[in-house]
Automatic annotation (TrEMBL):
Record lineage: Bacteria, Pseudomonadati, Pseudomonadota, Alphaproteobacteria, Hyphomicrobiales
Name the record gives this protein: Alkanesulfonate monooxygenase SsuD/methylene tetrahydromethanopterin reductase-like flavin-dependent oxidoreductase (Luciferase family)
MF terms (GO), sorted A to Z: monooxygenase activity; oxidoreductase activity, acting on paired donors, with incorporation or reduction of molecular oxygen
Stretch forming the signal peptide: none
Top-level taxon in the UniProt lineage: Bacteria
Amino acid sequence: MALTFGFWSEQETQVGHSYSRRLHELVDEVRLAEKVGFDCVALSEQHVALGGISSSAPEVVFGYLAAVTSRVKLRAAVTLMPQRINHALRSAERLAVTDILSNGRMEFYGGRANTTIAMRAFNVDPNETLAQMEEGLALLKTAMRQDIFTFDGKYYQIPPRQLVPKPLQKPHPVIGIAATSERSHLWAASQGFAVMSSNIYQGWEAQQKLIDAYQKNWKCDAEGPLQRPRIGIPLFIGIGKTDEQAKADYAGPLMHYAKISTDAYPRLAAIADDYKYMGESVPSMERAANDWDYLVNESATTVCGSPDTVIRQIEKFEAMGIDEVLLHMDSVPHEKIMEAIDMVGRYVIPHFNDGNNVVRPTEEILGQIRLMRTQKQ
């Protein structure tokens, strides 16, 4: 199967720029991504965030994107599942409506939240986010699959009710989770869910361990939409005409993002048992934020260089057994993002999807022709 490519954005807005302008720029980026061959568009959900990240209402954006796109899948990546941030039944309703309006193009990935800023703003207990995510996804699935449903859990107790309307996709859109721990990979596998996997900058061995744990333990949910495991990896990308140009344009933003995106992890590890495992990644996170060579070559999170270099880097992830890459195109001005989308669509995606349809040097083709003539004699 061809590798799936996703455009992933958090609507990061540059200092001195307008949030409203950034939203309209995002629409232009999505439309170009669809045009040049990306398979899906993934938007994260972040609340009261610092540093310019402004994707606070992706469900609203999806409703708009449904009208201005026609082919790409639209993926919540991820919807935050703590009950005080998103009631799971409301998430099911929003998913169903946008699935209808997009003609069956929605996908739903849930997550537990990973910033103390958002948790405290919504009065969320970090010790309950994991359980609420798992129970919330169970409710989401039940409400979409059954005509009249009821649910009796620790956090959700719902008498016989009907989800109105139901999603267009049957039994429902693909469900997955964002996972950084082995435990969450195993849980997703046990449910027959998809997974968006991250090793939190800990490197190739750690990433391969997570992939193997998920794939080896995946169990098909006979009533679900997936018939085989689906594992994707979010990758931070910088791309330019040359390796030198890509590094000059992206080294600063990518290292800065490594710093701010994991800033809350040490605090979470200290205040909640379910987040303790994050403490083990602190040395790797600090190194990724300060050591360019480690970030690009050893952390198994980032690709950067010319199109040929990026292709070689993504091939390493493909060899690990992944099904899709979500390319994080953010942290730089809109013009650079548009340029990156175009370069990925022009050079990178065709290499993985239809290599025989990519123009190669004449001498390379003639060499193969001459070799075949020799072999026939």
